[in-house]
Amino acid sequence: MPGETEQLRHIYLFAGLSDSQLQEIARVMLDRKYRKGHIIFMEGEPGEAVYLLKTGRVKIFKQDEEGREQILHYINPGEVFAEVVLFDGGDYPACAEVVEDAQVGMIRNRDMDDLLLKNPSIALALLKIMARRLRVSQRQIMELALKDTTRRLASVLLELAREHGSPAEGGLRIEMNLTNQELASMIGTSRETANRILSEFRRDKAIAVTRQGIVIFKDRLKTWL
To answer: What GO MF annotations does this protein's record show (predicted)?
Structure first.
């Protein structure tokens, strides 16, 4: 219980809750382990739970009618996902797939509903936190919609470097095995277009591609925004 409470303390959804409130949430959290390739949920399925990633990595993505993926986000340990269904119980708006063996904490909606009915102070705190998060998300969506493909890819690489980067060769190496197709899916373009833009970034010395992954030189890459 103490370890789970400490994990909950460091994620945005539960930031600001008291120790006793975090302990109440930890009591209803179930532990699950998934192997690489496991689909945790599919878009359109009933939203039955919110998840906390403890170890591993999870990919959030959408699929079109032809089965093509658009990657929305990679979830890191300590992050919550599927929180959008926490209060309304609607369908999952995207798919979640395990890309590295993962340990996941799961809080079922019905358990959270019971908890919030007994502890209205927790409900109020969560609503305030989610309202702030929604404003940030809306601003990010607007910024992304106004950017062209080159600026979108630069933004995605900078965000990946911020979330998954480690110091290397004067820059930040993205600690993920990403294909050019996956990068293309993240910005809604073709692999050929992504290849062309990455080549431009390399020629400009904004990035370097090594066997260990992509190295981002932040100051230089920011000039493409």
So the answer is: DNA binding; DNA-binding transcription factor activity
Walking along the chain (225 residues) 10 residues at a time, the average pLDDT comes out as 72 77 90 96 94 93 84 86 81 94 94 88 78 68 72 90 88 86 85 92 94 91 93
101: exposed, middle or buried (Cβ count in 10 Å: 0-12, 13-18, 19+): middle
User: What tokens were used for 186?
Assistant: 């993240």
Let me know whether 100 and 14 are in one domain: yes
> Using an 8 Å Cβ cutoff, are 77 and 9 in contact?
no
Site of tokens 């992304």: 144
Rounded to two decimals, the pTM is 0.68
Q: What is the largest CA-CA distance in the chain?
A: 59
Question: Which of 130, 116, 60 lies closest to 92, judged by CA?
Answer: 60
